[in-house]
Every structure is written in C-alpha cells, then in structure tokens.
Design a protein that fits this description.
alpha+beta; Ribosomal Protein L22, Chain A; three-stranded antiparallel β-sheet; two-stranded antiparallel ribbon; 5 strands; transferase; magnesium
C-alpha cells in the first residue's frame, strides 16, 4: 500500500467547548452523526473525545485534499472506535467520492490528547 494523503489537525478543547455551547450555531448537529455521539456518550471526558473526533475529521479532510464544502460535509466523515480497537474512518457522500477518485482503500488514524489540546493524524492509503 502507498500513502496517498496525510492530514494533521490540532484542536483547543476549551475552544471546542465554546463552539458546542454556543446557542446561536450549535456545532454538534453540523459535524457529528448519531452513531458518533452515541459512541462518545455523556461521560466526564465527552468534550475531550468530541475534540479528538473533530480533529480527526479535519485531518481526514486534509488527507483527501478537499477540506469541507464543495460537496463534502463534516458528516460525510464518521470517526468511530469500538472498545479496545483503534479509531476507524467511515466515509459517505462527497468524501467517499473523493476517496474513490484518489484510489484510497484504507485509513490509519491516530488521536491524542494532552495539555488542553486534541490532535489527530490521518493517513490515506491505496
């Protein structure tokens, strides 16, 4: 397999908390699907986990070379992690079309948290 794209993103957790709590333009329905929110749950680390998933979505979009917009939505990228397993990338809509056009067949994703920050790195493989 060859590396087709690589994306990295860093999110300030406190800033993401402000975006989520802003009643004028709630971030959650624009960026996350139900399966992601269900998997993240309501625990004390919820905002940290959301920040990691947000960074992962941004990293995937950077690896695709698309960013969001122009037919690609944040909800086209779903980040899921089964218990005891590494995080997974699932694409739909415009993101899936972009990945197919590039020949992307697999993803490697890493998410980390430290010092009030969440970071993600995404490798697009094909």
């Amino acid at each position: 397999m060859n590396v087709i794209g690589h994306g990295v993103d860093l999110v300030e957790i406190a800033e993401l908390r402000r975006w989520i709590e802003d009643p004028r333009d709630p971030l959650l329905p624009r960026c996350f699907v139900k399966v992601e929110l269900d998997e993240i749950g309501d625990g004390a680390d919820r905002i940290d986990r959301l920040a990691g998933r947000f960074a992962a979505k941004e990293a995937v979009l950077k690896a695709l070379g698309t960013g969001f917009g122009a037919g690609v939505a944040f909800t086209d990228v779903v980040i899921f992690r089964a218990p005891g397993a590494p995080p997974e990338v699932r694409l739909s809509g415009g993101a899936a079309k972009a990945a197919e056009a590039l020949g992307i067949t697999a993803w490697r994703l890493s998410i980390s948290h430290a010092g009030g920050l969440a970071m993600a790195s995404a490798l697009a493989l094909g």
